[in-house]
Amino acid sequence: CAGEENWVDSRTIYVGHREPPPGAEAYIPQRFPDNRIVSAKYTFWNFIPKNLFEQFRRIANFYFLIIFLVQLIIDTPTSPVTSGLPLLFVITVTAIKQGYEDWLRHKADNAINQCPVHFIQHGKLSVQQSRKLRVGDIVMVKEDEKFPCDLIFLSSSRGDGTCFVTTASLDGESSHKTYYAVQDTKAFHNEQEIDALHATIECEQPQPDLYKFVGRINVYHDRNEPIARPLGSENLLLRGATLKNTEKIFGVAIYTGMETKMALNYQSKSQKRSAVEKSMNVFLVVYLCILVSKALINTVLKYAWQSEPFRDEPWYNQKTEPEKKRNLFLQAFTDFLAFMVLFNYIIPVSMYVTVEMQKFLGSYFIAWDEEMFDEGIGEGPLVNTSDLNEELGQIEYVFTDKTGTLTENNMEFVECCIEGHVYVPHVICNGQILHDCTGIDMIDSSPGGSGKEREELFFRALCLCHTVQVKDDDSVDGLKKNQVPRRPCIYISSSPDEVALVEGIQRLGYTYLRLKDNYMEILNRENNIEKFELLEVFSFDSVRRRMSVIVKSSTGDIFLFCKGADSSIFPRVKEGKIDQVRSRVQRNAVEGLRTLCVAYKKLTAEEYRDVQKLLQSAKLALQDRDKKLAEVYEKIERDFILLGATAVEDRLQEKAADTIEALQKAGIKVWVLTGDKMETAAATCYACKLFRRNTQILELTTKKIEEQSLHDVLFDLNKTVIRQNGSLTRDTFSG
User: Is the dihedral of CA 253, 257, 259, 262 positive or negative?
Assistant: First the structure.
């Protein structure tokens, strides 16, 4: 497989800089950058020319420079000093301000580039500065340390070859994400074993997408053919992310310095312009047009006045011979420039001096503001650039995510519906809470024989179809096990929904214990441990909106369990009580609960072998891997038998509704972005006061676009808006 397909634009990396054994493909050496991060805009050598170039790109500065040069070149009514001194002052103050801010960036860069990193060299651990890290180096990262560059995850202190990571500094997600070590290297737990690794990595050239990575690792055992394994984003540990709940990991550097995904996502270092400055530039252009018009009119009037000979050459101001011989057009142009200088006061250079001083001093007032001091972390506000001070408080739109921003991101299992029967973990009966009760039927019949089997399959599906990890030691983020009520296992997952489902099913009698040596263990209601071999995991993605696992039971049966949004499960179901489950899902969604549907199908050994071949070829593809995997998933995830649905509650944050109401009163327009069902999203928007009971909701959905063209839908919405706002002027809708 290793040589079947090659990238045109790829890189090959030798792990630990070791040469592969004889017989491996020829390798063309490639140059990679070191691990230095450079966020500063200037260097000592280019500061003056680069800063001057950027400053004279401003219309005002360029204009005053031209006026100053005109005053130097021609005989003008005012001294060049009147334009030169204020311009010099503005340029100097701005240069000092930007130089100081850039010096602070240099200091921050040096602190990052000199932080210590644990290298593996010749089977031993050595500590060096981060900037000395090179592509191909093997490094060790300990718990709560940040990754020094983008690493391929080779092994961890955890027996199952996983580690937990928080990426809050990259994408704002504070939850723990699970990453997986390469299958052939996860058993290496010390420096000597890791250093003995012979492998090459082929991967794509650096690109900024945090969630995409395609590559493969070729592991050489003696002189045998290499074993090729696919590498994806689940194997890539990104610079800036932090290792959590894992003692240590080993990884190999593949992207360093300014090629890391974090560095590629840096904002451009070009000078930022505030809205005030942009509006000042517009006014400057308007006044410049007035100035040019005045100078032009005065030049024309001068020559109209001088058309009479006695006015052109009065007795007290006779022309010299050179003046009489001068070109008329050149003389007119010189007069035009003289008038420009004479009326130059219409554009006040002093205003720009004042604005620059206000920005510079204003940034210190922000830093000194005691009300913005955070006592929790002991830090006040930090002003990275004073060019945008006046933008603060000028917000017009607020875009907010729903989960974890408006809501607490603390999911609680509410109920599940299996074949029309509703199961609630804590049922209230006569004012008392009955724990571990499975009651409340939608229909007046308890599950029969086949219903009982489906019920057990549903609980097993939720215990097996997830990426939840079980915390090993006694504490998780400072919380002791014995402090957690009725929770013998502490679960960690990148998705709080999954933890809520696993904990909810635990209260209904089925407990997920652990994943060990690729076997998932669950404890059933009879307190018997059931083992299932985990064969494949089809990860959740926002396009498919579902995830699946293929597992093998101790009796040899192979099951494919799938859970996902109802819109992605119902079209793929061939049997089951679809109508009852759909009505329950609809009801829960209207109440603002997060819903998921669960389905399964049985595979024969032969069908699974076919699936395995398709997956292996798609996973090892270097080009269009995501597309090929999606096609394979589409082939496999169909003809399901529907088992049921779940409902999970994510409560609103405290004062979320009051905050949105206050923002709206301030004239700020709030947009909520969510991947939930439409009904769930609407219920949340009513709860957080984004919608009122009298709000008319305009819907633009794919369902509507299927019924009529996009143009017609927009036209109808437009008519509705104009009808509702009849009192407003037509100018409101001119856009």
Answer: positive
What are the φ and ψ backbone dihedral angles of 471, each rounded to 5 degrees? -70, 130
What letter does residue 147 receive in the DSSP assignment? P
684 marked as part of a ligand binding site = no
If you ran DSSP here, which 8-state letter would residue 326 be given? S
47 is in an annotated binding site: no
Other C-beta atoms closer than 10 Å to the C-beta of 284 total: 17
490 close to 484: Cβ distance less than 8 angstroms: yes
To the question of whether residue 676 is assigned a binding role by annotation, the answer is yes
pLDDT tens string 583-610 = 999 898 888 888 999 999 999 989 999 9
Tell whether 109 is in a known binding site. no
Of 171, 401, 626, 716, which residue is the catalytic one?
A: 401
Torsion angle, alpha carbons of 701, 703, 706, 709, to 10 = -30
DSSP string, 229-261: EEE-GGGEEPTT-EEES-SEEEEEEEE-GGGSH
pLDDT of residue 475: 41
Q: Pick from 549, 535, 590: which is nearest to 460 by CA?
A: 549
Residue 562 pLDDT: 94
Beta-bridge partner residues of 553: 532
**Whole-number Cα distances in Å, 367 to 377, 389, 470, 490:** 15, 11, 44, 42
Q: Is 646 annotated as a binding residue?
A: no
Return the sign of the alpha-carbon dihedral for residues 296, 300, 306, 312.
positive
pLDDT tens digits for range 469-482: 887 654 444 333 33
Q: What angle do CA 460, 462, 463 make, to 5 degrees?
A: 60
* Distance in angstroms (rounded) separating the CA atoms of residues 41 and 261: 19
- In the structure, what pLDDT confidence band is assigned to residue 255 with cuts at 50, 70 and 90? very high
pLDDT single digits (tens) 175-195: 788 888 988 888 888 888 888
Alpha-carbon distance of 532 to 549, in angstroms, equals: 11
**For strand 573-575 and strand 558-564, is the pairing parallel, antiparallel, or unpaired?**
unpaired
Residue 552's identity, in one-letter code, is K
Domains, the chain, ordered by start: 10-35+133-265 (2.70.150.10), 352-394 (no CATH), 407-433+449-471+489-651 (3.40.1110.10)
Q: Examine the residue annotation and report whether 401 is marked as an active-site residue of this protein.
A: yes
The C-alpha atoms of residue 518 and residue 549 are separated, in whole angstroms, by 12
3-class SS letters over 350-370? HHHHHHHHHHHHHHHHHHHCH
pLDDT at 458: 92
CA angle 179–180–183, rounded 5-degree value = 170
563 is in an annotated binding site: yes
Helix (H) or strand (E) holding 602: strand 594-603
**What DSSP string describes 571-597?**
GGEEES-HHHHHHHHHHHHHTT-EEEE
Is 707 annotated for ligand binding? Answer: no
Least reliable range by pLDDT among 77-86, 98-107, 411-420: 77-86
Mean pLDDT, rounded, for 309-325: 69
Closest Cα partner for 190 from 145, 144, 156, 237? 156
CB 131 within 8 A of CB 113: yes
Determine the distance from the C-alpha atom of residue 176 to the mean position of all C-alpha atoms in its chain, rounded to a whole number: 15
**pLDDT exceeds 50 at position 437:** no
